[in-house]
Write a structure and sequence with these properties.
By secondary structure, the chain is mainly alpha-helical. The chain has seven helices and two strands, in the order αααααββαα.
Amino acid sequence: MTKKQQETAHNGVDESLAAQVVGTLPEWITQLIQINTLIANRMGVVATDFHCLHALHQDGPATASVLAGRVGLTPGSTSRMIDRLADAGCVKRVPDPDDRRRIVIEPTAEGLDRITTYYAGLTARTHGDLADFDDDQLRTLLRFVEAARDSAIAEVDRLRSAQPDE
């Protein structure tokens, strides 16, 4: 069996190609972290605050405790984060429509507009990159991104539940 045949023998996957994909991901992630950090700085918040704003944008309004869980912060850190985001005009505290005793945090239109504006360049570039793929390739890419996201979520859960140095 040739080296190429050995590389593709496992489920028909070219292991060296899979290794190239996996090897490329850290640099891509690093660049995305840098983009998020630059945008957070321009919005007058820190990167963790910016992750909170993304969580609110993706998942909708939430209580402070739910937000703490989404972004992995303590309740005290979450309160300070919400204060910074409110001071920057990115979120507001509103009564929970289901329980007026509770307060939920929701993104402001201004905050979401600012994010959209800052991400316009990357969004346009990404659409341009995706235009080079046919529908079958896009379905495969989407399947990979969803699987990688689910794996990352599972790893976050594992690391949060494990004792340090396990």
